[in-house]
Amino acid sequence: MEKHVNFGSRMGAIFAAAGSAVGLGNIWRFPMLVGDNGGAAFILIYIMCILLVGIPIMVGEFVIGRHTQSNMIDAFRQLAPGKWWRIIGVMGIGVAFIILSYYLVVSGWTLYYAYSSFSGALSNPDCDYGAFFGDYVANPWLSLISAVVFMLMTHLIIIRGVQEGIEKCSKILMPMLLLIIGILVVCTFSMPGINEGLTFLLKPDFSKLNFSVILAAMGQAFYSLSVAMGCLCTYASYFNKNTRLVSSALSVSSIDTLVAILSGFIIFPAVFSVPHVEANAGPGLVFQTLPYVFNMAFGNIPILGYIFSGLFYVLLFLAALTSAISLHEAVTAYVLQNWKMSRKKASTIVSACAMTLGIFCCLSFGVLSHWTIFGLTIFDLFDTVSSNIILPLGGVLLALFVGWYLNRELVRQEITNNGEVSQRIFPIIIFLLRWVAPIAILSMFIKGLIEMFNK
Ligand code: PHE
Predict the structure, then answer these.
(1) What is the whole-number distance in angstroms between the Cα of residue 338 and the centre of ligand 1?
(2) For the chain, what is the radius of gyration of the CA atoms?
(3) Has this prediction a pTM greater than 0.85?
(4) Considering the chain, what is the average pLDDT of its residues?
(5) Cα 332 to ligand 1 centre (Å)
(6) Mean pLDDT of 377-389
(7) Distance of CA 335 from the midpoint of ligand 1 (Å)
């Protein structure tokens, strides 16, 4: 078994946690929700959710991880021995495993789309993008190969360990990701739809706001920050004693929110540059609408469309990779600490099991599309059960655990680094964890359940 290792630097710790948070959810799901729910008004609500619910839970998870220096299951065993609270740890790691198995399918798509952009297949003016996507996901071999290649990349990083693998990669991949976003945002200024796109993003339309929009914003904040699924708890177990938990949570959430909003700045000017494309094109937006949009948005300078499209899918791929690393590590850390085996062996077991489930998810777009439970394919079932049920439930329990059960002095010591950091924020975090977060997430959970059964 490997001995406990910490991240080597504060920067490394923040980039690793931000890498977990910044994922497909930021670049694909966030703009889609903004498009559906009235632009800037949704963004404002989203930011409130991050501040009032997301950050306090993230701090709670950091407290648990750093204090116990363990994966999420063992952390709860230590903090509440013999109590049913440990179900939170089991749910966290379980959900990380399930998300990993379907996340790698979509991540494989990003890899294939990056390849197809650079090979020129996506810039062919006669391409029917809907059919291109449909044929690709229904082709068992192509989509499986993409997922396996993606899994192998993740695996190779995980086996190198915390400092040499996760930290080093995050320090390279995150700046690369930010740089690509910067380049893409600058490029959008040469698109004809820039004014319309910016107006859509910056002018709030409060008439679109209602309770269900607020709950959608909260669900997104939750998913986007990667809280309650063992990833951040595991990463926090690698934080050292000087890492400031609240300021790290603020930095991670700021990077995450910035990337989400900038993705909107990339996507909407492009969408508004092309006639007959709607801003609320739904889930097909990234893989069916955008390739077409990128191809058309630069009008008579097709080479720009080619580069823009390639960089965009590389961006998606990088975001997916850093998130998958954190999901994988959450499970691997448990396996290696609990069963006392080498990192190589533990991560091979995790990769093999996740890939096996991943195969079913992949095939559920083609040959297994008739396998349904509650009318959902395997892929949709994994996504719905994890994001609509296990995640919010885990979030509520986590907030209650840190807010009510955990020894207050322990939480204070962790949040203030044994008195070195100001205490002022402490009562606010406790208040949010005790009252605001549980009530808010519970409403979201109930709505998710109702929606699921109404389908
Ligand atoms: N936060 C990631 C995203 O926005 C998703 C994710 C969930 C990553 C859980 C890791 C763990 O895409």
Answers:
(1) 24
(2) 21
(3) yes
(4) 92
(5) 17
(6) 86
(7) 21
Q: Is 25 in the pocket of ligand 1 (CB under 6 A)?
A: yes
- Residue 203 Rama label (left phi>0; alpha psi -120 to 50; beta): beta
Q: In which band, very low, low, confident or very high, does the pLDDT at 283 lie, cut at 50, 70 and 90? A: low
CB-based contacts of 389: which residues, under 8 Å, 6+ apart?
445, 448, 449, 452
pLDDT (mean) for 313-329: 97
Terminal Cα-to-Cα distance of the chain (whole angstroms)? 46
Q: How far apart are CA 46 and CA 295, in angstroms?
A: 31
* Per-residue exposure over 38-47, b if at least 16 CB sit within 10 Å of its own CB, e if not: bbbbbbebbb
Residue type present at position 110: T
Neighbouring C-beta atoms of residue 77, cutoff 10 Å: 18
For each of the domains in the chain, give its residue range(s) and CATH number, in order of start: 10-454 (1.20.1740)
For residue 326, give the ligand 1 atom closest to its CA.
10
H/E stretch holding 373 reads: strand 372-373
Q: Which of 256, 323, 386 to mutate to test the pocket of ligand 1 (most atoms within 8 A of CB)?
A: 323
Confidence of residue 279 (pLDDT cuts 50, 70, 90): low
User: Tens of pLDDT along 288-311?
Assistant: 888 888 888 777 788 888 999 999
Q: Which of 224, 234, 252 is the pocket-test mutation for ligand 1 (most atoms within 8 Å of CB)? A: 224
Per-residue tokens: 423: 């205490």
